[in-house]
Amino acid sequence: GVPLTDEWLQRFFERRNVQLEQNIRAIEGVHEAVAHLHEHCEGRIAVASGADRFKVEMMLRKVGLHHFFDGRIFSGHEMPRSKPHPDVYLAAAAHLQVDPARCLVVEDTTVGITAGVAAGATVWAYAPAGVDVQPLRQAGAVRFLSGMHELRLSTKA
Q: How far is CA 127 from CA 31, 42, 98, in A?
């Protein structure tokens, strides 16, 4: 019931940022998984998020992952269209100079999965215990990860 003004939006982002700064925690096993992927892919990994850049970078810094993605962070807010459109994934693939069909997307939402599939990538869903995988499967995810440790196991040669 409150008009969506610039002032309201600014206050919302300020409150959101404080909450994230105080409460964001890394998913168990994500540091090891990202380090492995970074090495396995020779640094050709990216973040392609529907969120605004400030939020993405703040969260990556807070959980100690920003250095793995520095210079390879893409925000749907900076694209002509955000998720569920593929623009953010296509931009990341182009920057990495990789055909989207050779990209792996790891997502946790149906909107993100839809975007990854539309980009032509293979999409795996992060779905910890208790998450209903059926909507993720219907969106196009072809594999389901119950934990980030599974990313390390899946890419070992």
A: 17, 26, 26
* CA angle centred on 136, ends 133 and 142, rounded to 5°: 95
Prediction pTM value:
0.89
Q: Which DSSP helix (H) or strand (E) runs through 119?
A: helix 110-119
Say if CB 148 and CB 128 are below 8 A apart.
no
pLDDT tens-digit series, residues 21-47: 899 999 999 999 999 999 999 999 999
- The secondary element (H helix, E strand) that includes residue 144 is strand 143-145
Task: Give residues with Cβ within 8 angstroms of 35, minimum separation 6.
Answer: 68
DSSP secondary structure letter of residue 157: -
The structure tokens listed for 137 are: 């499967």
